Amino acid sequence: MAPNLTDDGMCFCCGINNPIGLHLSFQWEGEEYVTYFTPRPEHQSYAGITHGGLVATVLDEVMGRLLMVRDVPAVTARMELRLRQAVPIGEKVRFAGRIEKERGKVVDMSATAQLPDGTVAVEATGRFMIVESNDTVKGGAG
């Protein structure tokens, strides 16, 4: 059965209807698809440090949304992270996604979480599978 990739506005990262979501917006900056996120205290793990799972979620979203805006219905098949340093609470972080390689129904991607001073705090690679969908992807990467 084909997955239903309809956007109902409830995506945790970008959904406008999600009352506890991050409400991120995205734009192109050159060849990168980018969002900015300033973690708040409720996003922390240890004192003053953003939860790594939340950072991973935003990295996944920036890669998945890049495909969505290109009208490529895809889902995350695999993702790997390299956590170079903690992402502090209260600092505006730049998340950027890029396509590395496309072949058939597989798209390899990369993304970074960059601190205001330019330091790359987290690197991600992701493999996305293009899927046949019974609905059009309109907003969320899922």
UniProtKB/TrEMBL annotation:
Using the record, list the residue span of the signal peptide; answer none if the entry has no such feature.
none
Q: Magnesium among the record's keywords?
A: no
- In this chain the Thioesterase domain maps to 48-119
Q: Does the keyword Hydrolase apply?
A: yes
Which GO MF terms are attached to this record? hydrolase activity
Which Pfam family is an annotated match for this chain, by its short name? 4HBT
The record lists the catalysed reaction(s) as:
dodecanoyl-CoA + H2O = dodecanoate + CoA + H(+); decanoyl-CoA + H2O = decanoate + CoA + H(+); (9Z)-octadecenoyl-CoA + H2O = (9Z)-octadecenoate + CoA + H(+); octanoyl-CoA + H2O = octanoate + CoA + H(+)
Q: What EC identifiers does the entry list? A: 3.1.2.2
Q: Which GO BP annotation is one of this protein's?
A: fatty acid metabolic process
Classify the source by domain of life: Bacteria
Q: Which UniProt keywords apply?
A: Apoptosis, Cell membrane, Cell projection, Cytoplasm, Fatty acid metabolism, Hydrolase, Lipid metabolism, Membrane, Transit peptide
InterPro entries given in the database record = HotDog_dom_sf, THEM4/THEM5_acyl-CoA_thioest, Thioestr_dom
Compartments (UniProt record): Cell projection, Ruffle membrane; Cytoplasm; Membrane
Question: If you read the UniProt record, what top EC class would you report for this enzyme, in one word?
Answer: hydrolase
Q: Quote the cellular component terms of the Gene Ontology held in the record.
A: cytoplasm; membrane
Q: How does it sit in the membrane?
A: Peripheral membrane protein
Spell out the family assignment given in the record's similarity comment: Belongs to the THEM4/THEM5 thioesterase family.
Q: What is this protein called?
A: Acyl-coenzyme A thioesterase THEM4
